[in-house]
Design a protein that fits this description.
single chain; 378 residues; alpha/beta; six-stranded antiparallel sheet; six-stranded parallel sheet; 10 helices; 22% helix
Amino acid sequence: MKRHPLATRFDGAAGILDEIEARLPETRDHSAEARATVDAHHPKRLLLRVDAVLEETVSAKTFRLRGRDGAMLPPFLAGQYVNVFFDGTSRPFAISSSPAELGFYDLTVRRVPGGRISNLLLDTVEAGQVLTTTGPMGTFHHNPLFHGDRVVFLAGGSGVAPAMSMIRELTDRGPVREFHLIYGSRDASDILFREELDTFATHPGITVDHVIADPAPDWTGRTGFLSADTISDLTGPLGNRMVYVCGPQALYPYALEQLTALGHPRKRIRFEANGAPADPTAQPHWPTTADPTEEVTVTVRDTTFRTPRNRPLLDALEDNGIRPEAACRSGECSLCRIRVLKGEVHTAAEAKLRLSDPATGYTHSCVAYPLTDVELDL
């Protein structure tokens, strides 16, 4: 060991230097230990066994997933999701179980008209099967420093799944915040977790209100949609409360309009990323001269194929055996980021691009649509 020239000038230096010399050589691989710790908490992939399939309603099931080795699963924050790889593609599903219970993840899936992966999972997956997922990820979770301790959650349909994770955490760990769930459903038979939610509503700090769009004659609760009047009647003045919104895509612009009408600031509203736009041509920056069904040519290295303009580039790439890393499929996580070398694409408003991306040609392929023949770099 090379000694520093000033070491001997300090009192007791000789004894300390002798002690250092007598120590056994360091043999631990600190880099490997750090890598193992990171991988345990933030794994790129998980192989999870379907422990049980729980019938929630006629259109929804909860898949309870455990580690194949029985070990505890990586920690997550209530509101986060895992991306499930299935049938050559992937889809993100919010974890509906409590982060206080890491023996399993619950993924609650509802049937979607025309839905590819949701419907396949509901129709084909049984207990005992092994699914490949990412580790938990996503930004739709509560941060007490920024989001405060008074929360309103507007949920529609299966958008109640992350709310369930948040409520279950509160009942497991104690009511550290006020939580008011306003849950919109098509009819009473369509309410997910109804009995459990009724029980949760008796806990201190937790309020649950149901709003039914198409009520039966015997329904005595709120009816209609999650309108400004309904929200105001149920919550009173929102004040500085943080409002979370999760549900079908149509809920997002509607909820924003209603909350804005109540004078609630946009910075106090959080939306869960929820897929590519149903109709990219409806966005104001879609070129009016671009026929959405017309096919263009996409080139990626040595692969060339044709695809319609209104198909997300990520889906088109997967259709042709090219599978970029992906997770949210909503323009947020940036894992599917690609560079457009030639041609022009429509990048949907949902894309959370870096400030430098437009100038350097980068976009998020899950919410990007080829307007002309394009050449891409992955």
